[in-house]
Write a structure and sequence with these properties.
The chain has a domain of 57 residues. With 86 residues, the chain is mostly helical. Helix 3 packs parallel to helix 4. It is elongated, with a radius of gyration of 18 Å. The longest helix has 20 residues.
């Protein structure tokens, strides 16, 4: 059992998706999209659906004003152009 857990964790790290390859901005938007999917799956009424949408919009705005803004400013310092969210 003591050997099985570290081996399993090693395989997950080795074969898992490379999260580090995504920018923090893209990762934030992807997490917001996943949260929206979960929220909509659990939504029962129209009010729940509207609430999910409002939460997703707030999360997307947080991403835009947080991680994305930081990445754009770092890109500007390096002379790179990082496209904004479409």
């Amino acid at each position: 059992m003591h050997v099985k857990l570290p081996f399993t964790l090693f395989l997950l790290l080795l074969l898992g998706p490379p999260i580090y390859a995504q920018s923090l901005c893209a990762q934030c938007f992807n997490e917001a999209k996943e949260e929206l999917k979960k929220c909509l799956e659990a939504a029962i009424s129209q009010e729940d659906t509207i609430s999910c949408d409002k939460k997703q919009q707030a999360r997307a705005k947080t991403c835009e004003n947080g991680e994305c803004k930081i990445e754009r400013s770092q890109g500007d310092k390096k002379g790179e152009v990082i496209p904004g969210k479409k």
